[in-house]
Amino acid sequence: MVKPLLLPKFKLNGEAFSSAESLKDRANYFVLKGKGDEIAIGKFILEWLNDNDFITVKTSGSTGIPKNIILQKEHVFNSAEATVNHFDLKENTKALLCLSSEYIAGKMMLVRAMTAGWDLHTVAPEKNPLENIDADFDFTAMVPYQVFHSLADLYKVKKLIIGGGAVPWKLEKKLQKCETHIFATYGMTETISHIAVRPLNGKEKSAVFSALPKVNFSQSENGCLQIHAPEISEETVATNDVVELISPTSFKFLGRIDNVINSGGTKVHPETVEEKLSIHINLPFFITSEKDGALGERVILIIESEKQLKVEDYSEAFTTLSAYEKPKRIYTLSKFIYTETGKIKRAEVLKNLK
């Protein structure tokens, strides 16, 4: 690989490095004596700077069993470069890493910083990473849970990308008052983090995801998104995400095909229903289905709560839904099961209902 894995301008927590070897020394220190996510940061820096032409990344496991996948360093570099160019994040960009470096999103923050010569600062991947920081940043990435708990501190960041899960409508509404330029991202481990973004606030706010440079889209016969991105994947990436294709470079996300509910012959996308309900329900929840003698499948609502709840408790919220979208029953569990990145493990939660 001829592309530079490290630029001299790169700084980590204010420390500059005269060579790759000096950065490796710091990484080794993190591995041996680091605390919390410093160990993962150190391990990944060493992996990025080794002689292999690939890295190994594990998926989050939110939609299946977690697995390790191999990514070519050249493709990883290209992904980082696309983000840097799209958001105009040149040398000396002051950025904050507040995601776990065990997963692709955190690893990509490190790669962008090393290959573009950023001034990168790291904090533990906690729910409000900005709370105790007396500094401003040009760029950071968070998951929705972190953004929700960081609303009072987002003024410290100029540009923010949100990934790792859908942005609830209730949260999106709160972001309209922020001066920070905020974007939802679409991507997965197999696409080396995001390959499309949509502005969540400001004049450019949109419900449509737009592709990063050198990325194109098509649809399969069942309406699922197919990603053509030769710079990051030699093969077409087939997804299980049903979309409305606006153009070869833009789409609206509707939901996952394996979540689609066929109720009385009408297709219901749980993600669409969840978005409508998110403004009314303050507890963790999700939409799924159960068998029904008349409809085939009927929509049900699963809520994380110690209390037993009934459909009547949310009758006002359900007025925003169509007849087939309305949950016919509510189930509660005292505690959901989550991935390390904060996504609900729906299949495992449902097992606990039986």
Automatic annotation (TrEMBL):
Residues 59-203 form the AMP-dependent synthetase/ligase domain. InterPro entries: AMP-bd_C_sf, AMP-dep_synth/lig_dom, ANL_N_sf. One of its GO terms (molecular function) is medium-chain fatty acid-CoA ligase activity. One of its GO terms (biological process) is fatty acid metabolic process. It holds the Pfam family AMP-binding. Signal peptide: none annotated. Belongs to the ATP-dependent AMP-binding enzyme family. This is AMP-binding protein.
